[in-house]
Amino acid sequence: MAHDNPSDTNDTRDSRTQLEKMQAGDLYTADDAELAAEQRRCYLLMREFDTQYAVSVEAGHKVLEKLLGSVAPDVHIRPPLYVDYGRFIHIGAGTFINYGLVALDVVSITIGRNVKIGTNVQLLTPTHPVEPELRWKRLEAAKPIVIGDNVWIGSGAIVLAGVTVGENSVIGAGAVVTKDVPANVVVVGNPAKIVRQI
After folding, report:
1. Domain locations in the chain?
2. Cα separations (Å) of 96 from 28, 91, 111, 134, 151?
3. Cα torsion for 96, 100, 152, 162, to the nearest 10°?
4. What digits encode the pLDDT tens for the residues 112-146?
5. What distance in Å separates the CA atoms of residue 180 and residue 187, rounded to the nearest whole number?
């Protein structure tokens, strides 16, 4: 991913924290004490979610309310759940997420209402520069992901940074979604392509 904006190079004149740069979608350094503390908090809550879900779905949901930015009361997520920060994820009513979701929320991940997500799906907001010198500096960035209402994402699918999936659409199992998906279509393959209208 090319970064042509000189303000995105993390120069010393930029007084923002790494968290602020990260949330703005600008280049930032992940090796940062504030970010490490956020990830530690997240890791402990992920472990607590696993434990409490074993007690009851309701107990697990109470942990999700602490872990995630927002989660509707009737959302059902089966562990394990793997997230970077948790608090940048928002999930709408009636959504069901099966085992093994990886949702790397360096920036926001918005999952709409009545979404169905199969096993081992990956929602990946992080990006890394194509330019080798920026990678040597350990800089990275991210773009948000939006999953519209009533979407079905099949097992093993990967949705990449910056993608919006329109309402009612279906992502086939194992698909790699590299660009926006309009509403009311089925996409399959790598890279994912539209194979039919709904």
Report:
1. 6-197
2. 33, 10, 10, 38, 11
3. 110
4. 999 999 999 999 999 999 999 998 988 999 999 99
5. 11
Max CA pair span of the chain: 51
pLDDT in tens, 59-68: 999 999 999 9
Number of other residues whose CB lies within 10 A of the CB of residue 51: 12
- For the domain covering 6-197, report its CATH number: 2.160.10.10
User: Directed axis angle between helix 33-55 and helix 57-67, to 10°?
Assistant: 170
Tokens read off for 14: 């930029």
Q: Which residues pair with 95 in a beta bridge?
A: none
Tokens 């994912």: give the residue.
Answer: 192
- Active site (catalytic) residues: 128
| Tokens coding 172 | 């086939």
Q: How far apart, in whole angstroms, are the C-alpha atoms of residue 110 and residue 99?
A: 19
Global pTM reads 0.91
